[in-house]
Amino acid sequence: xxxxxxxxxxxxxxxxxxxxxxxxxxxxxxxxxxxxxxxxxxxxxxxxxxxxxxxxxxxxxxxxxxxxxxxxxxxxxxxxxxxxxxxxxxxxxxxxxxxxxxxxxxxxxxxxxxxxxxxxxxxxxxxxxx
Length: 130
Hints:
Layout lengths: L20 H10 L3 H14 L2 H13 L2 E2 H8 L3 H13 L3 E6 L2 E6 L2 H18 L3
Antiparallel strand pairs: 1-3, 2-3
């Protein structure tokens, strides 16, 4: 028969189920709902594709741009950029403005810009050895 001291426990495993019930309750109450978590997951999924990320970064740097200019800046085909922009527009990451036969795209709002700025600052921080 084994005793508690005989059972191997992972070094980071908790010996009790909940150490700080008050904190757990506060955090659990603040957790986003399933729908919001799903939307966040989709947003980060959109941002995880290098091609789409280049398109978004081009818009971050260039402001409003047409498809051909985005394609030239990113080194992608206009078809690939158009496809990326359709997905990004469907998920409210970019907005479009039509002027005659041209379509000009820009980031949808300041939240997208803030998210990208923070991510770029974070990767720059890590590259700098921080």
